[in-house]
Amino acid sequence: MKNVEAAKKEGINVKDFVERNAKLFIKLCKLLNLSNTDFIRTTEERHKRVVQKIFNLLYKKNEIYKGYYEGIYCPGCEAFKTEKELVNGRCPEHPNLELKVVKEESYFFRLSKYEKKILELLKKKEFVVPEDKRKEMINRIEKEGLKDLCVSRKNVEWGIKVPFDKKYVIYVWIDALTNYISALGWPKGKFKKYWPAVHVIGKDINWFHSVIWPSILLASRIKVPKSIIVHGFINIKGRKLSKSAGLAIDPIELIEKYGTDTLRFSLLHLPFYQDSDFSEEDLVRYNIVTAMFRKTSSGKPMIKKSSIN
Ligand SMILES: [Zn+2]
Predict the structure, then answer these.
(1) 131 CA → ligand 1 middle, Å
(2) How far is the CA of 202 from the centre of ligand 1 (A)?
(3) I want to staple 63 with a disulfide (CB 3.0 to 4.6 A). Which of 58, 93, 186, 209 is the partner?
(4) Distance 216 CA to ligand 1 centre (A)
(5) C-alpha radius of gyration, the chain, whole number
(6) Does the predicted TM-score (pTM) go above 0.90?
(7) What contacts 211, CB < 8 A, 6 or more positions away?
(8) What is the mean pLDDT of the segment spanning 216-241?
């Protein structure tokens, strides 16, 4: 829904919109001098196949059933919100977005069945790192309990269709999380070598990775991840970077201005687990440091080390 709405705003179709964005990510990896063994998109056949297979499997095992849902939906989070989560009637993560009341016949995943097992998993220290992020998940389950999860959407043009009921598309998080194993070619291929994996994620998607994803895997009789490493946000002046809130910086512009190593150094220098603040002024300072290691075309350092002291 987020992609559909963003594309509409720009007046282009969704496919072109996501294609353009995917190219930007590939470009950014190259510019940042990052290496990756694979690049997968959730529009690829190899991914769609696995998502539909998992959905089918869960339906046959009666882990997914048809029910009825009404709730408040945040298009920014792409998730239903409870009244308690809202601040002044708005999503605390996306205060600029209008929330929608969505009421529809839907498919549900029996998440409630896995409450005990997930709590057991969360007792293991290494399952979610750092400690406070692990405890956050335990506290939320103990407070709210696990309710069955709505896993389908009606009248949505973008997404992977429910294989046995084409009026519906599969909920974005089932689709997105399955990407970890579709990229590995589950149930064969690299899956056998690399699964279970370690996930490195942002704190806003901890719940989906530490609670929902392991439940889906348990229901599918697939091993749960080894560990989920949760990092903080990089903010600007204490505010969250957000595409939907229009608060963003362009890393490509920064690389053009200061160079790859300067941006890499400044990002590595920020604290990993806690939230941190990004400022371009840091880049100006680091640019001087990295200049020591850069060479001019004649092979001489750009600036003398002595001039920095
Ligand atoms: Zn939200």
Answers:
(1) 25
(2) 15
(3) 58
(4) 23
(5) 22
(6) no
(7) 118, 137, 140, 141, 146
(8) 94
Expressed in angstroms and rounded, the spacing between residue 24 Cα and the centre of ligand 1 is 24
CA 254 – ligand 1 centroid, Å = 28
Q: What percent of the chain has pLDDT over 70?
A: 94
- In the reported structure, the alpha carbon of residue 74 is separated from the centroid of ligand 1 by a whole-number distance in angstroms of 5
Integer Cα distance of 255 and 194 in angstroms: 33
> For the segment 189-201, what is each residue's pLDDT rounded down to a tens digit?
999 999 999 999 9
In the chain, the amino acid numbered 223 is K
d(CA 206, ligand 1 centre) in Å? 14
Measured CA to CA, the distance from residue 98 to residue 74 in angstroms comes to: 8
- Whether 64 contacts 58, CB under 8 Å: yes
CA of 75 to the centre of ligand 1 (A): 6
The dihedral region occupied by 50, where left means phi > 0, alpha psi between -120 and 50, and beta the remainder, is alpha
- pLDDT given at position 309: 44
Domain spans of the chain, in order of start:
1-36, 37-231, 236-294
What would the pLDDT profile of 24-39 be if each residue is shown by its tens digit? 999 999 999 999 889 9
Mean pLDDT to the nearest integer, 118-133? 98
What one-letter code names the amino acid at 214? P
Please count the helices (runs of H) and the strands (runs of E) in the chain.
13, 13
Summarize pLDDT for 51-110 with one digit per residue, the tens: 999 999 999 999 999 998 888 988 888 778 888 889 999 999 899 999 989 887 899 999
Q: CB of 64 within 8 A of CB of 165?
A: no
Q: Residue 93 Cα, ligand 1 centroid: separation in angstroms?
A: 5
Residue 281's H or E segment, with its range, is helix 280-291
Give distance in angstroms: CA of 204 to centre of ligand 1.
10
